Amino acid sequence: MNKKVISIGTVCELTGLSERQIRYYEERKLIFPERMNGGIRKYSFLDVEILIDIANKREEGVQTAEIKKEMNKKNKYDAAARDQAIKGQLNAYFHKRS
After folding, report:
1. Which residue ranges does the record assign to the HTH merR-type domain (predicted)?
2. Regarding predicted confidence, which is higher, 17 or 72?
3. Where do the domains of the chain lie?
4. pLDDT surpasses 70 at 12
5. How far apart are CA 15 and CA 4, in angstroms?
6. Three-state helix/strand/coil letters over the chain
7. Pairing between strand 6-7 and 34-35?
8. Residue 23: which of 8, 3, 4 has the closest Cα?
9. CA nearest 50: which of 41, 38, 58, 40?
10. What is the pLDDT of residue 2?
11. What is the dotted CATH code of the domain comprising 6-97?
């Protein structure tokens, strides 16, 4: 899901977005394609899902700055949840050993 193997042309077909729109979302730091030799962009299936979500929100009138803010908030929440889960696993592991 996270492997960056999809070309921008295929992403355009899958999302209905133009190359220009996709590059704009990259400039706005909403999407992060991998750059190959010669600057060719490669995307993952997760990137495609994110772009579809962005396109839907833009159709609803949501500005890119608000989308970015929402994405940052979600990423912070996901990171905090991961940290909490790891701490719980470590506590359980060391509690068993003592």
Report:
1. 5-73
2. 17
3. 6-97
4. yes
5. 16
6. CCCCCEEHHHHHHHHCCCHHHHHHHHHCCCCCCEECHHHCEEECHHHHHHHHHHHHHHHCCCCHHHHHHHHHHHHHHHHHHHHHHHHHHHHHHHHHHC
7. unpaired
8. 8
9. 58
10. 83
11. 1.10.1660.10
Q: Which of 4, 43, 60 is nearest to 70 (CA)?
A: 60
The token pair at 33 is 């394609």
> Can you tell me the distance from the alpha carbon of 70 to that of 32, in angstroms, rounded to the nearest whole number?
16
Distance CA(85)–CA(98), nearest Å, equals: 20
Tokens of residue 25, six digits: 């979302």
Please give the model's pTM, rounded to 2 decimal places.
0.74
User: pLDDT category, 78, cuts 50, 70, 90?
Assistant: low
